[in-house]
Amino acid sequence: MSTYVQFWNNADSTYYRVNFTLQQSVLSKTTGTITGESEYYLLINTTMTDPYGQPLGNWLVRTLADVPPGDSTATDFSDLCRKYIDYFIKQSTLLETSSSSSSSSSSSSSGGHRRLVAGTNNPNVNGTYTLTTPYNNKNSWTNTNGTGTHVLWYYSTGSEWIISSAQNSYPTSTDAFIKAGAYPDGTYSNSNSYTGSATVTAI
Amino acid sequence: MSTISIYNNANATTRTITVDIFADLWSQTVTNTSSQEMVYYFKFITSATQTDGTKYIPVQVTGLSDLALNGVKQSATNTSAPYASIDAMIEDYTYDFIEGHTANQFGSGCKAQLPMK
Question: What span, in angstroms and rounded, lies between the C-alpha atoms of B47 and B54?
Answer without folding.
Answer: 10
